[in-house]
């Protein structure tokens, strides 16, 4: 129930390096987005590119055919607070207003 409310109330998610709980919550959200069980757009940022590159090799999952190439686009990976902010604002503006708006 906690994960349901976590996803239900969120407008965007920034995931920082973590352990099993972090991975569990990330994959729950990715699965809901991938299978379109969650209809609302939920921008997801993975913060810490080196960490995520070593912990989960999404490109290998694509290569092995376990996820589609489009599934990698469900999240944005960065090390920059400014990039994360700009990407989230752009995605929220696209979905809330139907078109990209100016950066705040």
Structure description:
The protein is mainly alpha-helical and about 100 residues long. About 55% of the residues lie in helices and about 10% in strands. The chain is built from six helices and three strands; from the N terminus they run αβαβαααβα. It has helices at about 1-10, 20-35, 50-55, 60-65, 70, 80-95, and strands at about 15, 45, 75-80. The chain has a three-stranded parallel β-sheet with strand order 1-2-3, sandwiched between helices.
Structural class: mainly alpha
Radius of gyration: 14 Å
Helices, by number, come to 6
N-end to C-end Cα span: 34 Å
CATH class: Alpha Beta
Tell how many strands the DSSP assignment holds. 3
Shape: globular
Sketch the topology as an H/E string, one letter per element: HEHEHHHEH
Uncertain runs: none
Q: What is the CATH architecture annotation?
A: 3-Layer(aba) Sandwich
Q: What would the CATH topology be?
A: Rossmann fold
Compute the average pLDDT. Answer: 90
């Amino acid at each position: 129930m906690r994960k349901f409310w976590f996803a239900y109330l969120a407008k965007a998610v920034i995931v920082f390096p973590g352990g099993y709980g972090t991975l569990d919550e990330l994959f729950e959200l990715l699965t809901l987005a991938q299978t379109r069980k969650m209809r609302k757009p939920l921008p997801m940022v993975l913060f810490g590119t080196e960490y995520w590159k070593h912990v989960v090799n999404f490109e290998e999952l694509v290569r092995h055919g376990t996820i589609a190439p489009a599934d990698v686009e469900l999240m944005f990976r960065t090390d920059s607070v400014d990039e994360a902010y700009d990407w989230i604002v752009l995605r929220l503006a696209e979905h809330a207003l139907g078109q990209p708006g100016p950066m705040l």
